[in-house]
Amino acid sequence: MINTAQAANTAPVLNSHPNQQAFFQALTKLCGQAFKGKVVADSTNSEAFNNKSLVMHVRTCSDTQIHIPFHVGEDRSRTWIITRTGSGLSLKHDHRHKDGSEDAVTMYGGLSHEPGFAQVQSFPADSYTQWMFAEKDLPQSISNIWRVFVYPERFSYQLVRAGREFRVDFDLTQPIEAPPAPGAAR
Q1: Domain range spanning residue 43?
Q2: Which of 13, 18, 57, 91 has the lowest tally of Cβ within 10 angstroms?
Q3: Which residues pair with residue 68 across a beta bridge?
């Protein structure tokens, strides 16, 4: 029997499906590197990404979490956060204002309900995200599914829902100089 003192010193074991572990490890191998991207699918032809430099930076990695700032031109307000939960993976979107304060719509995302593949994980909107999108009058986003792809030569971020697809691909064969930290002076 484990006593209370022993239990307090025992870190939880974060076991997940081998596909999720392999996916997380593949991302971890990119830590510290940055890559240019391009929009390859955008069913709404959003002006937010047109003619802008797109850069992802696998900035910080730990045994449980990876932070990937996504820079759109001079806008450094977005960070993707992938976390090992012990029963899978979660993806959150951290959105900030120029002063570093939280955006009204932030920390939304999803949980991997399926083992996925070593190269691809899907994150259907979680219950908090669905609630927040309903509260913020964004009902079209309640059914969002985000997918992240990690192949030896390409990283892709995709959003899909009824009537909407957005995907940006990043070339992993051509690392670039790391951009400034999110929230750094613009």
Answers
A1: 15-176
A2: 13
A3: 80
Q: Is 68 exposed, middle or buried (0-12, 13-18, 19+ CB in 10 A)?
A: buried
Token pair belonging to 180: 């400034």
Residue 61 falls inside a structural domain: yes
- 135 found inside a domain: yes
Output the DSSP codes for 81-128: EEEE-SSSEEEEEEEB-TTSPBPSS-SEEEE--S---SSEEEEEBPHH
- Whether the Cβ atoms of residue 98 and residue 186 lie closer than 8 Å to each other: yes
Rg from Cα positions in the chain: 17
5-22 average pLDDT score: 70
Query: For residue 164, is it within any domain?
Result: yes
| Structural domain includes residue 8 | no
Number of compact structural domains in the chain: 1
**CATH code for the domain in which residue 100 is found:** 2.40.128.20
- Whole-number Å distance between alpha carbons of 99 and 95: 12
pLDDT digits (tens, 9 = 90+) for 110-155: 999 899 999 999 999 999 999 999 999 999 999 999 999 999 999 9
pTM: 0.89
- C-alpha span between 141 and 92 (Å, rounded): 14
